[in-house]
Amino acid sequence: xxxxxxxxxxxxxxxxxxxxxxxxxxxxxxxxxxxxxxxxxxxxxxxxxxxxxxxxxxxxxxxxxxxxxxxxxxxxxxxxxxxxxxxxxxxxxxxxxxxxxxxxxxxxxxxxxxxxxxxxxxxxxxxxxxxxxxxxxxxxxxxxxxxxxxxxxxxxxxxxxxxxxxxxxxxxxxxxxxxxxxxxxxxxxxxxxxxxxxxxxxxxxxxxxxxxxxxxxxxxxxxxxxxxxxxxxxxxxxxxxxxxxxxxxxxxxxxxxxxxxxxxxxxxxxxxxxxxxxxxxxxxxxxxxxxxxxxxxxxxxxxxxxxxxxxxxxxxxxxxxxxxxxxxxxxxxxxxxxxxxxxxxxxxxxxxxxxxxxxxxxxxxxxxxxxxxxxxxxxxxxxxxxxxxxxxxxxxxxxxxxxxxxxxxxxxxxxxxxxxxxxxxxxxxxxxxxxxxxxxxxxxxxxxxxxxxxxxxxxxxxxxxxxxxxxxxxxxxxxxxxxxxxxxxxxxxxxxxxxxxxxxxxxxxxxxxxxxxxxxxxxxxxxxxxxxxxxxxxxxxxxxxxxxxxxxxxxxxxxxxxxxxxxxxxxxxxxxxxxxxxxxxxxxxxxxxxxxxx
Length: 598
Fold this sequence. Notes:
The chain is α/β, with parallel strands linked by helices. Helices cover 29% and strands 21% of the residues. It has helices spanning 2-21, 40-49, 61-64, 68-77, 93-97, 106-123, 139-147, 217-228, 237-243, 263-266, 271-289, 296-309, 322-343, 349-362, 574-581; strands at residues 28-32, 55-59, 81-85, 129-130, 152-155, 169-172, 175-179, 181-182, 203-207, 248-249, 378-382, 385-389, 415-422, 426-433, 449-456, 474-476, 484-489, 492-499, 502-510, 512-515, 520-526, 538-545, 567-570, 589-591.
């Protein structure tokens, strides 16, 4: 409520000025949601309640898969909403391209090309605009955008622009640079009244991703708009550009980002530390590329990890609450270690020391387990597949003492192999179980097996759900929060989608295939329901006993065993399986997500 009132105050301060300058300079609105945002239906309802507000949304291809097209198709057809491209992780491209220690100007084009293709697959058209992190642009960004056919790039305000008489964009090399000012009063909504709304902010950006506006700021703005209904005809960027002339041609100097500068990513808190570790990894990739014996697949794998490390959140940890910053720090180190692993090279002492310190700070009391054979746990990857081979766990409880209905052997709950394959049309999940109970009691004859596969698409803390589907009595760490979950039983397969801010929702039901002799179960999903690169996701897979009474529910539930949880089998290294399956006490359990870097 307090946020909505403050936004209402800001809108009220804007209203008297609207007529004074909207005729000369367009009022358009850009929204940069947090990565992993999925409450598109919530956005639709707020837009419906505020008919004066139209907006452009900066979204990555991965986030488009969360139902944006379905929820916003109507407003988009009426011109109230359009989408602009954004890169996963929102890397600060000018800093990446011109890094004094390890410049990578080629990344601007490579990353933007991949995002453009993913965008086309999601929406069926090429994006017209590109929104870089905080509106940071340079020559490499402009050149990449021009080569790929982008019509405009979002930036900070243009030097020397007079809002009363000028359109807020210039043209550089055939690409328009469109100026934005951050919406006032949203960085600290609990402190004091909202400031006066300056005329220079007629071109507004609500950036919730990079610590500039609080999460939910746009919703608060639209709710205040609905309550007061001010006459503020915000346009989409494309609509505004069609009706207003250019300011001028030329690009020197380039506009600053809407944060004013890049200091928050360059010299704030631990950012010098992060850049130092990143630069060492980037130089290692370059050395390998120039070695004369480089393998293209190895370069691709190492660069994929390096691109993950470019996510701008790792370079602004001082802005983030301590517990979450600590998790991000460890995640960043893990990604950089992965770069060296892909290259087959040892990590430098500086990275090993950072990893050791992060582990020491976060370590809990150690648990003792038998040594794990070196090759007991295996992850393999290819261009269109990823496979996890599970070590065999020690025997775990397989009966429900309260009902006695779970009578299958331990092998029925053992996930020997989980393999994911994909192409342009489908994503296939292939689970090889230790054994299948070929029972006629279910349509597909899987007997009591209930198998869940949870997918963390972006590794961004706070984006995905940490609790599993109902009845599982387990959770994952915030950095492994899941966005998609596949549920497989003898009644077929179902895909669910969720986020930290929305309940899981059923996306699609599909039939399954099984081969009782080999223990394989296969679920094939349309590619348009699972966008992105499955090789980069992290997975949690668990096996349970199905409660027949819930077989037709969405989702079906496991038996409510009196053991500590309903989970009887899990994907992961042997020590993690033992920790889960031989719990000394009851309660919720934490599960480990696994991925290509494990």
